[in-house]
Amino acid sequence: MKNKTLFVTGGNEGIGLATALLFAEQGVNVAIMGRRADRNARARDAISAKGVKSIAITGDVSSGAAMSDAVKQVLDTFGGLHFAFNNAGVSDVPTPFVQSTEADYDRLMGINLKGIWLAMKYELPAIAVSGGGSIVNTGSNTSIVGMPMLPLYVASKHGVLGLTKSAALEYAKLGVRVNAVCPGVTADTGMFNSVLDMAPEFEKALLPAIPMGRCGRPHEIAHGVLYLCSEAASYVTGQGLQIDGGFTVP
Q1: Is residue 250 part of a domain?
Q2: Which of 84, 154, 180, 216 fits a 20 to 30 Å CA distance from 130?
Q3: pTM value?
Q4: What's the domain count of the chain?
């Protein structure tokens, strides 16, 4: 992987930053994208401290112009793109189905689903012309199971897995593997903290349903991304890797 390039959306904290740092330790150059310039700058400095080249791009993943420009910046800076981790996403506060609003729908689908579609729209050809590589999208344990009170979030994450499978089939012979990581509840992330701010009882209520009895950690998800991008997963495409402490075991 040394001297290849990774592009991470939502890369300035949590799972995205943990993944960027892990890849940097393998000698991979890293570009991150996020909405907050101050967090982007701090994350870029932490990545660069690993001895690789890193850039930070401030932008909105739900904007086609922003995503097109971001991938162009990566290609212009590094001369190619080999790995992408489409991780940017937002959470939802548990809400009865009929009380969800159109604004809720537009926010969740715009970032969680449209953002990944737009990212892949520009990443897939860039990786193909760079000689092939791997894309990993962030799904969720709710990519394969339903959950009451979170209908829009669940729908958006089901959609992520659908996009992943479709892109994997289309690009299988073009040298680009496309998979997803599907984390369970992961502590020490912005999404986790925002949910706790809105619903402090959320973690305590969910833990009994997790066979391992705890939440995940960002570095555990990051290692799943690294596996899916590595030669060890060279025959893996179109899959959702559940990393959820056993939550979705039938």
Answers
A1: no
A2: 180
A3: 0.95
A4: 1
